[in-house]
Specification:
mainly alpha, single chain, 9 helices
Length: 191
């Protein structure tokens, strides 16, 4: 087993989530078998079923945790930013920070969506994330007083997605900067 000496201090649930996060993100949800997650976590199969019920529930928890961490990161990044327009641009700054991380391998939700079967845990978690992302931009646009928030939301989400894809597929370290500049040009001064 590859667990560390300190792993016994963390619960089996925490160790399973940590191993799943690392393996699913790095290698893919369907590529990584549950036995590999169990080995990395240093837990017995019974711990998986006790804590999650099975791989689908573990996948769902992995994606929900990724979502929660990203939402918290954006909240932290925008906390001191007073204007909604500036908060929108700060989202792209946060993407730039994410892309600069040495273990960045693309958006976890884009990656999971590429593997998702209809009705799967991945598809449902991705749908929840996408609904949240659209609402995040729409709420900030509404707060800023922009007209036609639906159109602007779609455009901002496209910039967000494009930056993620360019950063991952083209190893473009400046993708977030380019998307931020495009968003800045797209958004008129606040109403």
């Amino acid at each position: 087993m590859t667990s560390s000496a300190g792993s016994s201090r963390r619960s089996a649930r925490e160790r399973l989530l940590e191993a799943a996060d690392r393996l699913f993100y790095t290698e893919g949800v369907h590529t990584v078998g549950i036995d590999r997650v169990l080995d990395e976590a240093g837990v017995a199969k019974g711990s998986l079923y006790y804590n999650f019920g099975g791989k689908d529930d573990l996948v769902r928890a992995y994606l929900q945790n990724r979502h929660a961490r990203w939402a918290a990161r954006l909240d932290e990044r925008t906390a001191g930013v007073p204007a909604p327009r500036a908060k929108i641009l700060a989202i792209f700054d946060a993407l730039g920070d994410l892309f600069a991380e040495p273990d960045f391998r693309g958006c976890a939700f884009h990656n999971a969506a590429a593997e998702a079967a209809p009705g799967s845990a991945e598809e449902l978690a991705v749908k929840d994330f996408r609904t949240w992302l659209h609402a995040l931009f729409a709420d900030l646009l509404t707060e800023a007083g922009y007209p036609d928030t639906q159109r602007l939301t779609r455009q901002l989400v496209m910039l967000y997605d494009g930056a993620n894809i360019a950063a991952a597929m083209d190893a473009d370290g400046h993708a977030a900067e380019a998307a931020r500049a495009a968003a800045d040009a797209l958004l008129p001064p606040e109403a």
